[in-house]
Amino acid sequence: MSTDPGGTALRQAEIRRIRPEDAARMRALRLEMLADAPLAFLETIADAAARPHAEYAARVAYTSRGADTAQFVADTGGRFAGHAGGTVMPREPGVTVIYAVYVTPAWRGSGLLGELIDGVAAWSRACGRPELLLEVVVGNDRAYRAYQRLGFTDTGVRVPHPTIPALTELHMRRQA
């Protein structure tokens, strides 16, 4: 549940691991993510829209179980209000890389981002990975500040964006 600064309950969203039956709602959220923040994710909205439902369903089914990768959603009972994924980092087995973090505009500032990250963190700890890593596009100050508030620190590592050569990403880490 998210609360306002005074502690009053505003709305309810269940943070949970995605389930196979969530494929259609996850596809809708993915398209929203790409329309709202096209530089933040590793595909275009056109590519995502063209992908058959069966591919979404297979991806959702895969990430709904196991210890290598997982997706967490904020389920409001209707459309999903947010998403955060986590995956193992092969070169650093004690680290979970957080990916595809998104909160719908109506839920921003509600605390939902922290709840999604907490969901990934709990799964990471349960899998024996005590550290979290994420990448933020340099210049995305809103995301950078939000992650700082959640305890992430800038490592100083900078890497090229995987699909847009003109952009650079920075690494942030924290304990799970």
From TrEMBL:
- N-acetyltransferase domain sequence ranges: 13-176
Q: Which GO terms describe its molecular function?
A: acyltransferase activity
- This protein is called GNAT family N-acetyltransferase
EC code(s) of this entry:
2.3.-.-
High-level lineage? Bacteria, Bacillati, Actinomycetota, Actinomycetes, Micromonosporales
Domain of life of the source? Bacteria
Entry-linked Gene3D superfamilies = 3.40.630.30
Query: What keywords are assigned to this protein?
Result: Acyltransferase, Transferase
Recorded hits in InterPro entries, A to Z, give:
Acyl_CoA_acyltransferase, Bact_Acetyltransf, GNAT_dom
Q: Which organism is it from?
A: Micromonospora vulcania
